[in-house]
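Task: sequence design from structure.
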């Protein structure tokens, strides 16, 4: 193994001493592996902040694309690694760059509920009303794929304040406002129509402190408020989320569990516990939290969708496909569900099944060129697979 490949592997595992030595020895930060990953991409994927900083100083390109057309900058946004994203903003990050689905760093962070990442993207000036190849803007993503709860409401507030258009239609002709009304997300409707006013001054203060990165102050305020309002579940969210930002994950989890003890049916909190466990690198426990929410509300797609997202991140595509099938049984018209299913099937080498899945997306959104492109790519992969099988006989 040459030192350039060693640099990629050392960066991925966060071995900062090895990275320093390899850089001093002249390892090339621009070299890519078979997947088109530079050392910077490898470090970004594993959230190795200290290594990322070293590689940036050494001249790594934050806009270098891998074989899936993903860049380290967009990758940091898609995974909610806002500390890495913030560093990359100082090293020539292309704010208008998009992934293979046509989304900027703002879109996946809005979809997945990465509040601080959304804030950093907006502060940097990433276009707020850009739509991806599915026809969704960041606001549409956060409304359609969110649950209208505490976290997503804050994200939607940030997007609206940044100029997000609540009347911008998707490919079905529906706006964020129309979607939120259909989903019965009343708080979101009020935010989109500029009618929402938070009556609790403590909550307003907590929001402001959190967005100003004053996490310790926010925690202190919440501690005092909880003493007088111990049954106010919102307080536990702001305290827990501030603890998360300080990487005090065990304490954050404890706050979320206190809220669930008060109201086990507040499904919003299972999303917070799952996300916290993901940060703690406890995948099985995180998946179990998603399952609890799915069991409590079997007709709700939000928790199952985010569980499937996480399974894809873990590379567990068989399980992700099983979850997508459950989602499609609930909402067979959802072209995005069929699209994600097709991508997982392609990753598994099941190209015939991937073509069938993408054809369902085409049936529900026939004019979208993205689906035709993916069908053609899957047909090419299927033909290569059949030729290979024929040659091995």
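Answer:
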């Amino acid at each position: 193994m040459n030192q350039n490949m060693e640099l990629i592997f050392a960066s991925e595992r966060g071995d900062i001493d090895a990275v320093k030595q390899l850089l001093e020895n002249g390892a090339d930060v621009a070299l890519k592996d078979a997947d088109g990953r530079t050392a910077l991409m490898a470090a970004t994927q594993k959230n190795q902040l200290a290594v990322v900083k070293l590689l940036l100083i050494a001249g790594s390109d934050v806009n270098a694309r891998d074989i899936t057309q993903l860049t380290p900058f967009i990758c940091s946004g898609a995974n909610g690694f806002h500390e890495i994203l913030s560093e990359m903003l100082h090293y020539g990050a292309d704010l208008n760059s998009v992934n293979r689905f046509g989304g900027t760093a703002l879109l996946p962070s809005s979809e997945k509920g990465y509040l601080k990442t959304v804030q950093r993207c907006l502060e940097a000036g990433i276009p707020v009303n850009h739509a991806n190849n599915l026809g969704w803007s960041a606001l549409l993503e956060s409304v359609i794929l969110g649950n209208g709860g505490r976290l997503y409401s804050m994200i939607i507030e940030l997007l609206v304040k940044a100029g997000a258009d609540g009347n911008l239609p998707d490919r079905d002709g529906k706006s964020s406002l129309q979607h939120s009304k259909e989903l019965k997300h009343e708080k979101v409707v009020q935010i989109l129509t500029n009618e929402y006013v938070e009556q609790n001054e403590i909550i307003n203060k907590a929001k402001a402190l959190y967005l100003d990165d004053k996490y310790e102050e926010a925690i202190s305020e919440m501690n005092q408020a909880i003493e007088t309002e111990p049954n106010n579940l919102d307080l536990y969210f702001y305290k827990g989320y501030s603890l998360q930002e300080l990487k005090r994950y065990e304490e954050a989890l404890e706050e979320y569990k206190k809220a669930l003890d008060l109201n086990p049916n507040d499904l919003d909190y299972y999303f917070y516990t799952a996300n916290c466990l993901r940060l703690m690198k406890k995948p099985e426990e995180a998946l179990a939290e998603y399952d609890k929410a799915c069991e409590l509300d079997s007709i709700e797609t939000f928790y199952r969708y985010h569980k499937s997202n996480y399974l894809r991140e873990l590379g567990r595509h068989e399980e992700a496909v099983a979850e997508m099938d459950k989602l499609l049984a609930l909402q067979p018209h959802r072209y995005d569900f069929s699209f994600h299913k097709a991508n997982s099937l392609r990753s598994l080498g099941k190209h015939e099944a991937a073509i069938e899945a993408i054809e369902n997306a085409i049936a529900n959104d026939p004019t979208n060129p993205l689906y035709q492109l993916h069908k053609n790519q899957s047909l090419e992969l299927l033909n290569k697979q059949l030729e290979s099988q024929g040659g091995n006989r």
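Residues 1-94 form a domain with the Serine Threonine Protein Phosphatase 5, Tetratricopeptide repeat fold (CATH 1.25.40.20).
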